[in-house]
Amino acid sequence: MKMAGSLRGEVRNLYKNLLYLGRDYPKGADYFKRRLKNVFLKNKDVKDPEKIKELIARGEFVMKELEALYFLRKYRAMKQRYYSDTDS
């Protein structure tokens, strides 16, 4: 039972972190929150610890992808702001 409790905490932290990252999602925070909630509800009945670990790993991958998306957006905005287009 101890392992299930620690996995429950990991899942909760993953949800909170993804929810936090979803604030700046391009399609809007509400859209992201609905999709996130639906995905977590779809997998709420999974009991196998190995499957739960796989789902947590997939969620962590999504977090990294979101961070990369935001970094790229920030980089593009800075590049556009500070470097003039010499071809035009």
UniProtKB/TrEMBL annotation:
Domain of life: Eukaryota
Domain Complex 1 LYR protein: 10-63
A GO biological-process term: respiratory electron transport chain
GO molecular function, one term: enzyme inhibitor activity
One GO CC annotation: mitochondrion
Family: Belongs to the complex I LYR family.
PANTHER family xrefs: ELECTRON TRANSFER FLAVOPROTEIN REGULATORY FACTOR 1 (PTHR21024:SF0), GROWTH HORMONE-INDUCIBLE SOLUBLE PROTEIN-RELATED (PTHR21024)
Protein's name in the database: Electron transfer flavoprotein regulatory factor 1
Lineage, uppermost ranks: Eukaryota, Metazoa, Chordata, Craniata, Vertebrata
